[in-house]
Every structure is written in structure tokens, then in C-alpha cells.
Amino acid sequence: MRILLVYPSYPDTFWSFRHALRFISKKACFPPLGLLTVASMLPADWEKRVVDMNVTTLRDEDVSWADYVFISAMVVQDKSARDVVARCNQIGTKVVAGGPLFTMAEERLPGVSHFVLGEAEVTLPRFLRDLAEGCAKPEYECHERPTLDATPVPMWSLVDTKHYATLNIQYSRGCPFDCEFCDITLLNGRQPRTKSREQLERELDALHAIGWHGSVFIVDDNFIGNKKKLKEEILPAIARWSNERGYPFSFYTEASINLADDEELMHLMVEAGFNRVFIGIETPNEESLVECNKLQNKGRDLAASVRKIQNHGFEVQGGFIVGFDSDPVSIFRSQINFIEKTGIVTAMVGLLNAPRGTRLYQRLKKEDRLVADMSGDNTDCSLNFVPKMNRRALIDGYKHILSTIYAPKEYYRRISTFLKEYKPPKLRIMNAFHFYHIPAFFRVMWVLGIIDRGRTHFWHLLISTLFRRPRLLAISFNLAVFGLHFRKIAEKVAASPAGADPSTDTVV
Fold first, then answer.
1. Is 423 helix (H, G, I), strand (E, B) or coil?
2. Distance of alpha carbon 334 from alpha carbon 338, whole angstroms
3. Domains in the chain: ranges and CATH
4. Less packed terminus of the chain by CB within 10 Å, N or C?
5. Taken in order 70, 75, 80, 83, is the CA torsion positive or negative?
6. Strand pairing category for 139-140 and 114-116
7. Does pLDDT of 15 surpass 50?
8. What pLDDT score was predicted for residue 430?
9. Looking at residue 427, what is its pLDDT?
10. Whether the Cβ atoms of residue 174 and residue 195 lie closer than 8 Å to each other
11. pTM of the predicted model as reported, rounded to 2 decimal places
12. Which residues on neighbouring strands pair with residue 47, listed in sequence order?
């Protein structure tokens, strides 16, 4: 059996880092971890190939070669996924589809021969058994939450890792919290399920064996969902593994704000080689936090929590949302002030949308406020519901946030604010984008130091860092380059005509 595993392309989004990757001659941030894991679950004697459309072109001969095309995608990849299915149908190759896009869809996409939905550890073996017996069904779905004991090491031999800025692994699934707008608990549940120490070490060994050196993203929904196991077993094991090999990797992950409450946990993470963490902060407005059930953020000094995490050696990347029913008209200035005050350089601000099946989706449906499916890109100025705030005012305010925080002066000043709070250990790889190598260094200096309109602020950052905290020069370069990408995204948002659409300009 010949299997082609296809990962559809992403549009140019906040997290694509497309405009930054060109400096280091990389094509994508991450490889398709889910498909590589599925590949390891398929029979060993089957021929397998991977086409990641974010790094290479899907050719008709690739599709013709295969007996089946396996496709997995996120919601934001919907258009590309539909194109892939259509091409497979035209050529006559059967399609097997899975992943969040297909699992959460209300209607099944025509042209797919078999849907293998939910967690592959449960549904894929059923499909493979029936396929071998010649009686494969159109759909396999389960709502079980399997342990991760049987999850194999991804098949890294199927991709060329030189195309990627960062490699990725998964340690756990699920999040103990239940935010109204989040679909994580629908997909992976509220009880965090984890891999064993031995499994995690095997995955690290696999990355090390292919010669990887650099950043590794642990893609968990909430890495600190099971603090006890992390502190007693996992983090000490990662620290030992890293120390024995001279710290070949730096790690980053996603966590909840209550990380700031556990100094021992932060210390152990830094000792293991973690230097970045993405945190869903969402909003400084307390009423909006209550509305969306973000109780872990409620009743705390969010700015102080961010600074504490930075002080322990992490770059805090933050997620922010505007569009809650409880948001006042002052929310746009409040968000700007919070981001600037805390020095959160990578601030992903999005418009609220309701993913299908979430409690937010159900509430808005009951209130007859849903108007469309979400695009999956919460920076494209689309809304899939009628907001309480005047729609045009909401989108214009959102555009104002992005155009302000990613203007060169404000952005470079925020880097300086962050660097004052950031206290990393002395011996660590700072992160995945290695701008200390010569070609990238000169590209950065030419584009940001000569061509870019923010060049004055770039040189000020560079010189002040060189004299005051030279050890942080590499991360200053990295963040400066990220800023170029973020400005491109902000400019695209500013040019979006969505704010002029009065069709849902209704207050309910």
C-alpha cells in the first residue's frame, strides 16, 4: 500500500512568521507533527511519503503515485484542504481525512472517501482493520480520551527538517480549564493526559539523532496541566537529558497564567532549557474574564504575573482578545496600555470568534447571533457573530490596537521594556532563529538597519543592548525581525475592508 500524507498550506497569518523566515532561508515554522505521528501508526511495510504544502508543491504525480491520500488540517487551512481533495478526486485517488478541521465541521466535506475523526490512537486502528478486510466505512469517530502510552515517535525520516525553523513534540493533551470560547476541551478534554518520561526521552533522542540543534516547541494545550508529574519526574528528566548532551535544544510551550504562582515549577522549567511561554491573557477587563470563564486570570494582577514569569527567565508571548460582550469602548486603549506596560513583544491580538461546538458557540446560537463559520484566522477582521459593540467600532478599534503596538517606535520600545525584566540563565540557546550566523546577520542589518522605516529605532535598540546587556543581543535581533513580520500583518489588517461592512452592524 502506498500512502501520501498531505498537509495543506497556511495563509499568511500572525503565526506563520512568513516575512521573518526568509531571513534564515526557512520555509515554515513547524513540520506537520500530527501526520508524522500518524505515519508511525501505519503498517511498517506500507510505502509512505509526506508533502507539506507549506514547504513544497503538491504535484499530480505525487497524488497518482498513492493508493490513498491522508490529509489533516486546522480550520485556517480549509481552502487549501478543499483544493487538495478536489485534485485527488480529479485524479482518482481516494482521500482519508482527519484532524480538527474535519472533526469539528458541521457537514462532511464531499469528495472524502473516509473520515477518521477524533484521536487517532482509537479511530485509526479501527479503520486500518476494516481496510485490510475490505469493508472500510465512510466514517470513524469516537469520543474516547485514550492514554498516550501507545503514541509512537513521529516518523521524522519523511520530512527534510532543514526547511523548518523549529521542530515540535507533544507531551500532553487536554487543559483543566474551561474557557467559553476555547475548543481545546472539545477536542482533547479537561483531564490532562501525559506521555511517560521514557516516551518523552525517546522523542528527544529521535530529534537529536537527526542532528537537530535549536528550538523545540512542545505543542501541548497547557503544558502545566499536571504540575505534580512535571516537577517530580518530567522536568528533572529533561534537565538531565539536556545537560548530558550540552543543551542542544531550547524549549518553549503554552501554559496558563498560574505558572507565575509556582516558583519551583518555573525554576525547573528554566533548568530544563525552557525560555519562552505563550500565555492566554485575553483581556485586562475583569468583567470580560468572568464572561468567558477565564477564572484562572480573574482576581489577579496580570501585569505583575507576567513580570514575575519574565523575571524567572521566560519571554512571555501573549494572546489577547477583543469583542467580548462585556468589553467597554475603552478596551482598545486598555489593551494597548497593558501590552506596552508589560513588554509583551509578541502580542497576538485577535477578534473574538466562536469555534463550532464551544460553549460560546452554543450560547450565541441560542441568542440567534451566529452569522457564519469562523475562518480560523482571528486577525483577518472577520466575525462569525453579531457583537454587542457596534461592529464597525469594534473592528476599527481592533485595527487601532495592531497599528499602534506594531508601529516601529512602540514595538522597539516594548522590546527594551521586556529586556529590562528578562533574566535568563547564562548558558542557553536563546531560541530557534539563529541570527548570529553570518548570512542572516547581514540580511537583518541591510533590511532593518538600512531599508526599513523603523531603522532609527532598530539601531537604538541594537546599540543600547550591545552596551548594557550584550548577552541579549541575539534575542534582540530575533525580536526585531519578528517585528517586521508583525508589521506586515498589521498592515494587511489595516487594509482589510471588513470594517466597512454594515451587514451585521447590529446591537442586540
1. coil
2. 6
3. 2-140 (3.40.50.280), 166-420 (3.20.20.70)
4. C
5. positive
6. parallel
7. yes
8. 44
9. 56
10. no
11. 0.94
12. 2
Query: Residues for the chain: how many in total?
Result: 508
Measured distance CA(479)–CA(316) in Å, rounded: 12
**399-438: b or e for each residue (b if 16 or more CB lie within 10 Å)?**
bebbebbbbbebbbbbbbbbbebbebeeeebbbbbbbeee
145 pLDDT tier (thresholds 50, 70, 90): very high
Q: Report the alpha-carbon distance of residue 294 to residue 303 in Å, rounded.
A: 16
Give the CA distances from residue 444 to residues 33, 83, 447, 449, in Å, rounded to whole numbers and listed in that order: 30, 36, 5, 7
Quick one: cell of 297? 486570570
Residue 97 β-bridge partners: 71, 115
Assess whether pLDDT exceeds 60 at residue 63: yes
Average pLDDT over residues 249-253: 96
Q: Residue 154: which pLDDT band, with cuts at 50, 70 and 90? A: very high
Number of Cβ atoms within 10 Å of the Cβ of 462: 19
Least confident of 120-129, 165-174, 184-193, 410-419: 184-193
The H or E element that residue 318 is part of is strand 315-322
Q: Which tens digits make up the pLDDT trace of 455-491? A: 999 999 999 999 999 989 989 999 999 999 999 999 9
Residue 498 pLDDT: 58
Query: Between the CA atoms of 466, 469, 473 and 477, what dihedral angle is there, to the nearest 10 degrees?
Result: -90
- Beta strands 68-72 and 47-52, pairing class: unpaired
CA-wise closest residue to 352 among 285, 404, 277, 257:
285
Grid coordinates representing 91 are 485524479
Q: Looking at residues 83-103, what average pLDDT do you find?
A: 97
Question: Hey, which residues does 52 pair with through a beta bridge?
Answer: 7
CA distance 492 to 381: 10
- Name which of 112, 186, 179, 145 is nearest 357 in CA terms: 186
- What residues does 7 pair with on adjacent strands? 52
| Grid cell at residue 20 | 521573518
What angle (nearest 5°) sits at the alpha carbon of residue 138, between those of residues 136 and 144? 90
Q: Name the pairing type of β-strands 274-282 and 249-255.
A: parallel
Q: What is the 3-state secondary structure (H, E, C) of 297-341?
A: CCCCCHHHHHHHHHHCCCEEEEEEEECCCCCCCCHHHHHHHHHHH
Residue with cell 452569522: 371
Cell 522590546 sits on residue: 415
Percent of the chain with pLDDT over 70: 96
Helix or strand holding residue 479 (H, E): helix 473-495
Structure-block grid coordinates of residue 495: 487594509
Distance from C-alpha of 234 to C-alpha of 225, rounded to nearest angstrom: 13
Backbone region of residue 92 per phi and psi (left: phi > 0; alpha: psi in -120 to 50; beta: other values): left
Sort 135 into a burial class: Cβ within 10 Å, 0-12 / 13-18 / 19+. Answer: exposed
In angstroms, what CA-CA distances link 364 with 74, 320, 375, 398, 403?
Answer: 22, 20, 17, 21, 29
Q: Which helix (H) or strand (E) holds 94?
A: strand 94-98
Q: How far apart are CA 264 and CA 230, in angstroms?
A: 11
